[in-house]
Amino acid sequence: MDGVELEILWSNLIAIVTERSKALQRIAFSPIVREAGDLACALFDRRGRMVAQANTGTPGHINSLAFAGAHLARIFGNDIAPGDVLITNDPWLSAGHFFDITTLTPIFDGDRLLAYIGSTIHHTDIGGYGIGAGARDVHEEGLWIPPLKLYECGKPNAVLHAMIRRNVRTPDAVFGDLAAQVSSGQSAAEHLITMCKRYGLIDIEELSDEIINRSEEVTRAAIRKLKSGTYHGESQFDVPGGEVITLKTAVTVDADKGDITVDFTGSSPQTTTGINVVLNYTHAYSTFAVRSCLNPELPNNTGSLAPIKVVAPEGSIVNCKYPAPVNARHVVGMYVPMPILKALYHVMPDRVLAEGSGAVWTIQIQGKRADGEAFTSSMFNYSGGMGARAEKPGPSATCYPTGVAAVPVEILEAAMPILFDRKELRDGSGGAGRTRGGDGQVIQFRMMTKDQWLLNAVPSRLNEGPDGIGGGAAGAAGRFLVNGKDVSEARKLTMNPDDVVVLETPGGGGYGVPAAS
After folding, report:
1. Which of 277, 283, 305, 306 is deepest in the core (most CB within 10 A)?
2. Which helix (H) or strand (E) holds 23?
3. 337-394 pLDDT, tens digit each
4. CA angle at 395 for the pair 433 and 26, rounded to the nearest 5°
5. Cβ distance 282 to 312 under 8 Å?
6. What is the mean pLDDT of residues 475-483?
7. Closest Cα partner for 394 from 282, 296, 473?
């Protein structure tokens, strides 16, 4: 395909999917989507291959959506019609926990299938235990939606709608977010049909072949410039309840084939709390870590992901087996890049960064308002410091690898009876080095209620801070305090009206030996 023609068509595809993503974010009900951008949108060809992704979203959602879209396209095959909308939140087929619901809209021009448009977003509530790690198996965690049709020929699936509505605490918010996913998909479909007619395309198959093949070839070419070999990395961190998790990686670079294989053999086994990770999510953050160092400027699609293989023993913490609980899978999943970066330090030291705080500290609250009305908050997050880079310090209060933003405290205070007393940087918490790790932050809040309330909190790295790299010092460990006392619990906490919660998130590790003073 002519390069100029390809660039014009590619720009159209990116505009369509990015416009869809931004529209979805604007009209979503949940603050975690609307304010923090915890979502992903992507366009798929008829074969279920991810062709283009929006230029906003989180890696865990984006690269997991590549799997979810392929699974839904395969499962339904030719059993689709104009007006259908496919849906699932199956953890092992999509993004790893029930809160992330994927919808996939087949795009028809008349009776001819052109493509699919898909999205994954974090929903406020899906019933069950909530966002915490305290459930003992996946069936305690909420409503499991197998691959089904949310809409059939443009009409709601009445049985499925009724099942969802009766099994969640906040049905208006859940259906508001589902409506945002469906309507933004319809808008994207209209734009893609218009684009195909404008440029005389009967579908996007030739275009997707060109994009995916070129992306794979360029990625393999970048790998061929590296030194072949197997490089090792290891990270340890504590999780809610005090359990210490070990992630080990062997990263094998095959410069002849242009392949990279990330092997997690030797990592901790799956556990009894909801921090287990499905392989899709592990793959998502593994490929993100590699591509961040290798060729971040290249489009992210099925082609650019193909040369990166991810292997993990079944039953391990990063490839858990049913019925393992998974609702707080990000607690481990967001640490996946850390041992990979340590391994890549041996082959491309100038492109990696030191360990950061890892997983965002996630909070969800259930309680009563002043008038006695019950509420369940959306999830909200706070990050620590990012690890230092070879030539620049790590940004403070910035979470690598997720990229999800913090919901502004003003939004949270308007949405529920919460009062924030402090939100400030934790000065000096970043590790020393030639370049310094980013600082964590201090957040203090209380609930303005006369009743007891429930707190799901999943802090990590409370025992030891993130490692430095190349002689850099470790960042400070975090602290999670209730009324001045340290707490580390996997279970949901029952809180009293006057309880005060303080979060001191970890600092990032330093890079390189500090300069002599």
Report:
1. 277
2. helix 3-27
3. 999 999 999 999 999 999 999 999 999 999 999 899 999 998 899 999 999 999 999 9
4. 165
5. yes
6. 98
7. 473
